[in-house]
Specification:
The structure is a homodimer. The first copy, chain A, is mainly α. Chain A has one domain (9-193): Tetracycline Repressor, domain 2 (Orthogonal Bundle). The first copy, chain A, is 74% helix and 0% strand. In chain A, helix 8 packs antiparallel against helix 9. Chain A starts with 8 loop residues before the first helix and ends with a helix. The first copy, chain A, binds a DNA duplex through residues 1-6, 29-31, 39-43, 45-46, 50-51. Chains A, B: Keywords: DNA-binding, Transcription, Transcription regulation. Chains A, B: Residues 6-66 form the HTH tetR-type domain.
Amino acid sequence: MAGKKQFDVDIVLDAAMVQFWRAGYADTSLDDLSRATGLNRSSIYSSFGDKDSLYLRCLNRYAVRYGDRYEQALSSGAGEPLRAIQAFFEVTLQRIADPDVPDGCLVAQTAMATPVLSPAIATRAIEAVGLQRARLRTALNTAELAEGDAENYATHIVAVNQSLAVMSRARASQKQLRTIVDISMSALSQALHSRG
Amino acid sequence: MAGKKQFDVDIVLDAAMVQFWRAGYADTSLDDLSRATGLNRSSIYSSFGDKDSLYLRCLNRYAVRYGDRYEQALSSGAGEPLRAIQAFFEVTLQRIADPDVPDGCLVAQTAMATPVLSPAIATRAIEAVGLQRARLRTALNTAELAEGDAENYATHIVAVNQSLAVMSRARASQKQLRTIVDISMSALSQALHSRG
DNA sequence: CCTATCTTGAACTGAACAGTCCAAGATGTG
DNA sequence: CACATCTTGGACTGTTCAGTTCAAGATAGG
């Protein structure tokens, strides 16, 4: 059982990420991680460092993976902000509908726990939210919308997107989640039409 | 030091509530509770039962206290849904601005942790969200809005209200939180005016 | 002022925790 | 086949956890 690494780092990180995502930092023990990944404690420590380091790596992985998908969604509706934002929300709605990953959102959950997490982890979660807002601001920065409005709608949309994490954990139905999104979309549509 | 209770139950529950609210269930130890309340472990157990029972009691206290404030806000704008909902959001915005209590929201945070909390606690948090939605539905059930719209806006507003908890923990400014609310208010205003 | 009653503080218990260590043994090289 | 190298599993450490126990002593009633 040695000589070469006996596992695929990406698969292990995915398993750890899902475990943290489902149960949170505090309620995930190293035994949980060992069980979820199939690795024993020594291998986890030698490959990923301590619990904080592994969590940070999982959070980064999550932020990059879904960040890419959000980015892609936003640019798929290029030039048409309404379609871009709809595609953006669709990423979240589909993730919540996917039975292979937990409800909620690792970033939202990390943000909620900032008072008890290490500064590095808390900072990373806040950064992820800020990056999300920047992406949205760019997608909304068209002739159809005043600059300040782009900023404001970006803030609103980031928040509504996070609210889906809370509501999905509160057992809201897919239909209810769509309703939440639809009303924000109608507000955006209104703002775009009053100018365009 | 005995004969009569040496403490005020309400003050103790408030202290425990704030502790849970700030740090969450998992990151609050009985030592933390003992420190926060000034009571020792025996007194906590004899007066409130185990950690789960105390948490549930704090959650109920939170739900009732702020539930009353939300209720009051909604009825303060009687007949005028727009004013009622604005007052509703104001309760949350002022709570977040209050330096005497933590950011975030005990209900939102409990909802986020449903996968690792006891069923009784998880159920109570989900109930609290449902009650909030019912309150909003009632306040929105006017001639100015179709019945289905009242339901839909209630769902949206509950979600946006929860999003303020996440965003406040992600260090959003008061101004940003107000922007989030304002855009939902504009959507509601639009829906009301297109009928009234 | 005496006694039954009740709160309280501190010590205790067994379990779970994060993190460390090392012998066993599989691997790749020569 | 032999040896140096590196991963791995499991045992171990010290700490912290939730929950229990109980003697010390304060209180209220007679």
